[in-house]
Amino acid sequence: MAASGTPPPSTPEAAGALSGKESGEPKQLPELIRMKRDGGRLSEADIRGFVQAVVDGSAQDTQIGAMLMAIRLQGMDLEETSALTQALAKSGQQLEWPEAWHQQLVDKHSTGGVGDKVSLVLAPALAACGCKVPMISGRGLGHTGGTLDKLESIPGFSVIQSPQQMLLLLEQVGCCIVGQSEKLVPADGILYAARDVTATVDSVSLITASILSKKAVEGLSTLVVDVKFGGAAVFPDQEQARELAKTLVNVGVSLGLRVAAALTTMDNPLGRTVGHVLEVEEALLCLDGAGPPDLRDMVIRLGGALLWLSGQAETQDQGDARVAAALDDGSALGRFQRMLAAQGVDPGLARALCSGSPTQRRQLLPHARKQEELLAPSDGTVERVQALPLALVLHELGAGRSRAGQHILPGVGAELLVNVGQRLRCGTPWLRVHLDGPSLSGPQRRALQGALVLSDRAPFAAPSPFAELLLPPTTSRP
């Protein structure tokens, strides 16, 4: 049964007094835009009217953009954000599952990071731990990569699955990763694409409503949101990220969800690869029980929190141990193979990807036509590799979109050949760039070289990107 909740009641004054109309009388879009532009508060009916206009096509693109910008500049309070979340969730079909599954239904969402392939590993790992994970994911937004784009770089993988197909996937595999469709949260699909091209990505209310509307229709018991902060995150400051985290937790409570928010750093790329195909390969390494330590740590910590908060583990540490075991004993990898085959990948290819060596996997996936290596300009210790300039250059090379629906090049990407904290000698290769077009230009090469920050420090162990976990009220845990 889909999760549902009733937002806190709004007062008649808040609902309609600003326009001088009764709250039940529908307002025209220009009036709603003007109200929010001037700092007014939108009623639940106002918000439903705007969302309905988005879905039925009566809202023009310019009006959608204007409303998004008004919300971005003026903000929304908790009740408005909850109302927007519910309106988006109710704009399409609600997913329904057997009642016996409710406590097992969990999911994770990320606000977007460079090299963030956690979902590809975590969904099958949770399924191997007995969870049901109906993950509705997104495409690249801004300079960050999208989970769906990464999975679609695997030949045959289909992110479009009907609710009936999702039910079958959860029964047979325990997890699925799908995209929004015309039936599932269609209003958010429209607004999501519009935010990417209207400079309104970094709105706390719009981010919250977008994330939780997709999760509300999933009928979850528990959700963990990875809220990133740092140089390559939507919010560079940890306090701004904490504001979003608190909003997600509080709106989640109003929807009847147990939502926890993990604050994680996004200054360096997560893992050692950036780019769709390269990140799939690295996810497979992690599913092999190997892979970069920061990626493995994120998967284990987020998965452990979900198992604990949903009542499927007695403690966070016990949850962490169960996820780690699923990575190490091959059960998570087996679930990933089954998910690939169930979502359209040829079973032979799925089996080869999940049983072959890294070299063999590379021959099975599409790759860029050439590679270029960058060399360390001097001796020093790697203080950090700035994720943002790296992502921006790869976006320019074809790994990202500048407009909704734009074709991307799945093989374009970069491999970090060094670790943060490692000592380098001048001339040592530190980055390998995979290109599908012309060679790197002078400005692109300079931007990439500027991403490598060296210091005179002694070598050191790279810190975990996991900063803190904001929990829902303890009374909401089963």
What best-fitting shape do the alpha-carbon axes yield? globular
How confident overall, as mean pLDDT? 90
Report the C-alpha radius of gyration, rounded.
22 Å
Structural class: alpha/beta
Any low-confidence stretches, pLDDT <50, length ≥5? Answer: 1-23
- Please outline the major beta sheet: 4 strands, mixed
Give the % helix.
40-55%
What proportion of the residues form beta strands (DSSP E)? Answer: 5-15%
N-to-C span: 18 Å
Instruction: Find the count of extended strands (DSSP E, 2+ residues).
Output: 13
Strand order of the largest sheet: 1-4-5-13
Helical segment count: 19
Organism: Nannospalax galili (Northern Israeli blind subterranean mole rat)
Biased composition (Pro residues): 1-11
InterPro entries: Glycosyl_Trfase_fam3, Glycosyl_Trfase_fam3_N_dom, Glycosyl_Trfase_fam3_N_dom_sf, Nuc_phospho_transferase, PYNP-like_C_sf, PYNP_C, Pyrmidine_PPas_bac/euk, Pyrmidine_PPase_CS
EC number: 2.4.2.4
Description:
The chain has 478 residues and is α/β, with parallel strands linked by helices. It has 19 helices and 13 strands. It has a 4-stranded mixed β-sheet, with helices on both faces. Strand 4 (222-229), helix 11 (238-254) and strand 5 form a beta-alpha-beta unit. Helix 6 (118-128) packs parallel to helix 12 (276-287), helix 10 runs parallel beside helix 11 (238-254) and helix 18 (387-399) runs antiparallel to helix 19. The model is unreliable at 1-23 (pLDDT under 50). Residues 381-455 form the Pyrimidine nucleoside phosphorylase C-terminal domain. Residues 1-11 have a biased composition (Pro residues). Belongs to the thymidine/pyrimidine-nucleoside phosphorylase family. It catalyses: thymidine + phosphate = 2-deoxy-alpha-D-ribose 1-phosphate + thymine. Pathway: Pyrimidine metabolism; dTMP biosynthesis via salvage pathway; dTMP from thymine: step 1/2.
